[in-house]
Design a protein that fits this description.
264 residues, mainly alpha, 2 domains
């Protein structure tokens, strides 16, 4: 059996996250070449009697005993991996009659792999309470997308514009200008989760490369919404520089004033 590489990536199973937990755990067991025990592809070997067996004595062959012991050892390791990634309450609920990894897995699947109202409600609460910290937004936003995916797998699809609104609610307060722009620029039928994601990540990446975030935030707040073009988060456009034309007029005014002085 190989090393436990990838075991740390398996989340703890608390009874509410069967989909994500079972996916990670099965992947880990496959990598360890142990999934064949859970799937039932390799069953417990039967003990074979020796040719010298009599009617009163049926000793098993040494080979069959070894094969059986090896199977029990590997299967017990699978059970250990499964229980190590389960909460105490889940482990305590596993029936003692389930003595093989397949029985343990199938028992958990039967109990928790269903779209119960309680689990759906718990996922919805996670979605509405989700907030972005302002750290690695790519990873954080992917967690929210995972919640929506789990709900969809359980037969509850969150409408696209609701997903987008939930993500807007999660935007840090210091970036309120982004929320304001998104809500004013996009109509409800055009507001999509992917659009909001792109705007948030784009602004996060832009600010990450600016040495003075306070000035960058001021630039975003002063961007005016165009009716046919979205604002540029990299800076103001030419049309958004009111001093450009006025400075030109001032130069012309000074030149005309100079001409009048010479005429005098």
């Amino acid at each position: 059996m190989s090393s436990k590489t990838g075991f740390d990536s398996v989340p703890a199973f608390d009874g509410s996250n069967w989909l994500s937990w079972s996916a990670r755990m099965s992947q880990f067991l496959m990598a360890q070449k142990l999934w064949v025990y859970v799937s039932g592809l390799i069953t417990k070997p039967a003990l074979e009697s020796s040719a010298a067996a009599t009617a009163t004595s049926c000793p098993a062959t040494a080979e069959s005993i070894k094969a059986r012991n090896d199977w029990v050892s590997e299967d017990s390791a699978v059970i250990g991996y499964i229980k190590m990634k389960c909460s105490e309450s889940v482990v305590a609920s596993i029936p003692t009659m389930h003595t093989t990894s397949k029985e343990v897995w199938d028992g958990l699947k039967k109990r928790f792999d269903k779209a119960s109202a309680a689990i759906v409600l718990q996922e919805i609460r996670k979605a509405f309470s989700f907030r972005l910290s302002g750290g690695n937004l790519t990873d954080e936003i992917s967690k929210l997308a995972t919640i929506f995916a789990r709900l969809e797998q359980r037969g509850f699809t969150v409408p696209e514009f609701v997903q987008a609104l939930i993500l807007i609610i999660a935007i840090p307060q210091k970036w309120d200008q982004i929320s304001t722009w998104l809500l004013s620029y996009y109509s409800l039928d055009k507001l999509e989760y992917g659009v909001v994601t792109d705007v948030i990540i784009g602004e996060y990446q832009r600010l990450a490369g600016v040495s003075r975030p306070s000035q960058s935030a001021n630039k975003i707040s002063t961007v005016k919404r165009k009716s046919d073009h979205p604002p540029s988060w990299k800076g103001k456009s030419r049309e958004e520089q009111p001093n450009a034309s006025s400075s030109g007029d001032q130069k012309k005014g000074r030149s005309h004033a100079g001409k009048k002085v010479k005429e005098r």
